Amino acid sequence: MITLRTAREIELIRKACIISAEALQVAGEAVKPGVSTWEIDKIAYDYIRKQGAEPNFLHLYGFPATACISINDEVIHGIPSKKRIIKEGDIVSIDLGAKVDGYNGDNAATFAAGEISEEAKRLCEVTEKSLYLGIEQAIVGNRIGDIASAVQTYCEANGFGVIREYTGHGVGAKLHEDPSVPNFGTPGRGVRLLPGMVIAIEPMITQGDRAIKQLSDGWTVKTKDGKLAAHYEHTIVITKDGPQILTAVG
Ligand code: MG
Asked: Which residue of 23, 90, 145, 232 pairs with 190 in a disulfide if CB–CB is 3.0 to 4.6 A?
């Protein structure tokens, strides 16, 4: 079921989204060679708690941390660990959210640890740009397929792979709500976009083949070919005046 949000609900979701965006920013600033992913997770946890909010990934479906932190060929759902030390040249995807006053925010970005390769840089730039191309299509009268196709077309034209198995989603009182927001699809197809819909758009893009595998930890998703992956995400609201990014730093 897709819920259309009232103006009051949108303001509550915005509050959760701003905290989510700020937590992602402080976590991203901490990405440096020599730092463990556990330390990054702790920084995000402390920031969210200090705002009087809750980390909404923590314990969701049994996930043990505040942030999913996925390095290089890890696409999503990496589990923070004291043993996982970030190295020079790594790309580090951080996905996290906060819940406050009963509503959720969700966002992700890929950060560079020191100097990264030109290819890694291009993958991150294309993935981030595809997110904004998807957001541009989030207008009343369009359909989910317009968002999906914008992301897919741009990433594939750049020679990259588009993950099919995981998608964006509605955001509200629950972190994951309807509708599903895939990163591949056909323009003009799927759910019609209406004012008051709040959705997370989140391209997960691979440098090589789009095939993935899950590790034995039951969480981490990696590329099968061992090539890099990037992940960017915003929670947005669709309004009659166009899309508005809610996960923006206040
Ligand atoms: Mg999400």
From this structure: 145
**Helical axes 7-29 vs 37-50, angle rounded to 10°:** 140
Per residue in 110-153, pLDDT (tens digit) is: 999 999 999 999 999 999 999 999 999 999 999 999 999 999 99
Among 82, 79, 119, 73, CA closest to 96: 79
| Distance from residue 237's CA to the centre of ligand 1 (Å) | 14
Q: How far is the CA of 205 from the centre of ligand 1 (A)?
A: 14
- Say how many Å lie between the CA of residue 179 and the centre of ligand 1: 12
Q: How many angstroms does the Cα of residue 56 sit away from the middle of ligand 1?
A: 11
Closest to 91 measured CA to CA, from 215, 205, 243 = 205
Query: CA 182 from chain center: how many Å?
Result: 12
Q: How far is CA 169 from CA 119, 144, 146, 155, 233, in A?
A: 29, 11, 15, 20, 11
pTM score above 0.90: yes
Tell me phi and psi for residue 211, to 5 degrees: -65, 140
The Cα–Cα gap between 94 and 24 comes to 7
Q: Where are the alpha helices (DSSP H) in the chain?
A: 7-29, 37-50, 118-136, 144-157
Give Cβ neighbours of residue 241 (< 8 Å, ≥ 6 apart). Answer: none
Q: pLDDT tens for residues 97-115?
A: 999 999 999 999 999 999 9
